[in-house]
Design a protein that fits this description.
mainly alpha
Amino acid sequence: MSQIADVAGLAALTAGALLCLASAIGILRLRDFYSRMHAATKPQVLGVLLVLLGLGLRLRDPYAIGMLVLVGIFQLFTIPASSQILARAHYRGSAAARRPRDRA
């Protein structure tokens, strides 16, 4: 049983690392702000959760697994919220730049 959990943990760690790598490549390669933000948030959340799952399968300590669950929950709350705030700030900043100014 432990060998199956070790192999599953290794697979989850590898998949999570590859998703984090794809996210980093997307941030570097994409040109638009919103595309970069999408690349920074969508695969990153799943990648971090897969890494945490792999760590939980490898460690098997109840206290460590509880801490990993808390980290995963906080990641699920903070990453989408921060990307929404960044998108709103970028949209408002670009809308303010396009607005014609009063000339007096």
